[in-house]
Amino acid sequence: MLALMKASPKPAPCKPDSAEEIVGSIALRLDRPVVLVGLMGSGKSAVGRRAAKKLGIEFRDSDQLIVETAGISIAEIFELVGEVKFREMERKTLGKLALASPQIIATGGGAFCHDTTADLLLHHTLTVWLKASPATLLSRIGNTKTRPLLHNGDPLATLTRLDEKRAPFYKKAHVHLDTDGLSTHKAMMALFHALDTHLLRQ
Ligand code: S3P
With left for phi above 0 and alpha for psi between -120 and 50, is residue 16 left, alpha or beta? Predict the structure, then answer.
């Protein structure tokens, strides 16, 4: 019996499986903000808010902060001062957020496609690209009125064009996550697994 017990193989060190174990493992290692990048409708805000709650850290949305500072909507900013000015506001907002304590930050879809903003995020934060097909993005966006870039023409064609144009920028993110077919909860769990794997490798 003793000989048999000695011969049995040691259990392999296991990766955390339950949400609680993964949350604990991430919390131990995370030393910078997690920044979610990707196209409109990719779930940056929905997944980010839920993940932050579970991790017990703050959630910030750069678009939301810009709206609060400007006192007008994103659509109005585009209309009144134009996209170039909006990108400047976005860079300043994310510049401050990037230096903050560990938290989850949702960016506007175009933020990571501007070199100065992308460089500062790549340097100071852990960036995650939430990917989804244009059809999935459109189904999640629903009302396109709040997205100035979708005001003209066929929204699906615009999302397809933006997807092709922006993918080379999003590809620079530290972590890539495919969210097609995933509910918000499943995308959050996939995000936790991807973050944990990335942090364990460092
Ligand atoms: C934009 C995406 C929007 C918002 C603005 C521009 C873009 O944010 O920042 O309308 O360039 O893709 P969401 O990605 O949160 O919709």
Answer: beta
